[in-house]
Amino acid sequence: MNRERNSVDIAIIGGGISGVGIAQYAAAAGYRVLLIDKGEIGGQTSANSSKLIHGGLRYLETGQINLVRKSLKERRNLLNLAPTLVKPVPFYIPIYRESRRRPWAIRAGLSVYALLSELDPLGRFVSVPSVHWQRLQGLKLAGLEAVFQYWDAQTDDKLL
What we know:
With 160 residues, the chain is an alpha+beta fold. It has helices at residues 17-28, 65-81, 103-116, and strands at residues 10-13, 33-36, 52-53, 86-96, 126-127, 144-155.
């Protein structure tokens, strides 16, 4: 293929984490990439995001099994590719008497999540014993029935 010196194969509009990620993948695959953003790269929507590299736990409830599996795989890839920029972060799910989802349902969902992660250490979860609940900052103890801890990951998207 004969390319002109200033030509590009792919133009990406938006320099948030998705745009930059697509640009990186395309460049790694040998494409000439132009990334366009009206402001600072990573300075708009991505700058105000949670910075999560999540495994897709929330997609289980709607039956999006393939999306969960893919999200878990991509999270593992990013943790392996950029271990100084993508870090594991514990998350807690408190279940109260008035909670819509019962402890057995959360346990079942987290078990499926662990299986979909192919038993990756970050796919595992634990039931936090009640003697440790008071250690969890900001947790309302009244009416608390169960607490589950699972893992996701977080990044500095601008550095990533």
